[in-house]
Each structure stands twice: as structure tokens, then as C-alpha cells.
Amino acid sequence: MSGKLKRILIVDDEETLTFSLYQSFIISKENYEVVTASSGNEAWEKFSSNPFDIVVTDITMPGITGIELLKRIKQEHPQTHVIMMTAYGSDEKKEEALNNGAYRYIEKPFEIKLMKEIIASALN
Q1: Residue 48 has what pLDDT?
Q2: Looking at residue 68, which CATH number applies to its domain?
Q3: Distance CA 32, CA 25 (A)
Q4: What is the per-residue pLDDT across 24-68, written as a single tens digit (0 to 9) for each?
Q5: Which segments of the chain are extended strands (E)?
Q6: Considering the domain boundaries, does residue 1 fall inside one?
Q7: pTM (whole model) above 0.90
Q8: Which structural domain range is residue 29 located in?
Q9: Count of domains in the chain?
Q10: What is the mean pLDDT of the chain?
């Protein structure tokens, strides 16, 4: 992957997770701009003003949920890949996420290396 800077938005109300993912991209020095948000509302504000190539979002958050964020993103920018993550996984949530256009659905806890591989795959 070379050329244009790829923009990634990481959304979760669990600050340790967003910080860990953010740090893993900064340390890797790859061609990414990584932005974090701690709520669906904050994520939508950031996305609306300047869309991202990839959004990694938790499903369960106060305010705008991850599913609602997914729907809004897909309506405005269908080419944006959205990766859904949750600590409270179920077949119903997985089906809802994928039926609404999620690129992938991943349950917490997960290895950061796996998330980075999923993101790299989505960007290629």
C-alpha cells in the first residue's frame, strides 16, 4: 500500500482500546492518519467533516450506536469500510452488522495484530 495517506477512525467508549489501537498504528509508521472518538456522536461529527477510508467502531455505545453509525456512514459514503467490534457478541448482532454493510465483525478481546491485518486487507 503506497501513495495517498489512508485515514482510519477508531470509535469506542473504552479509552484503553482506542489508545492501544492508535498507538499500534503510530508505532508502525505506516501511511495512516489515525483519529479516535469516544462516542458515536463524536465519530459522526468527525466523519461528516472529513470522511475516512476505514472506520473501526464498537457496537454498544451511548448516544449513536455502532449500528446507527454504520448505517449513516454507508448512506453517505458507501465505499468506506466499517469494521464492527463488540464485547457482547451474538449471532443477531453479527447478522445485523453484516446486513447493514459492515466489512467485518470481530468480538473482543482480540489481538491488535489481527485488527491491523483486517484493516490492511480492507485497504488493499
Answers
A1: 95
A2: 3.40.50.2300
A3: 7
A4: 988 877 789 999 999 999 999 999 999 999 999 999 998 999 999
A5: 6-11, 32-37, 54-58, 81-86, 104-107
A6: no
A7: yes
A8: 6-123
A9: 1
A10: 93
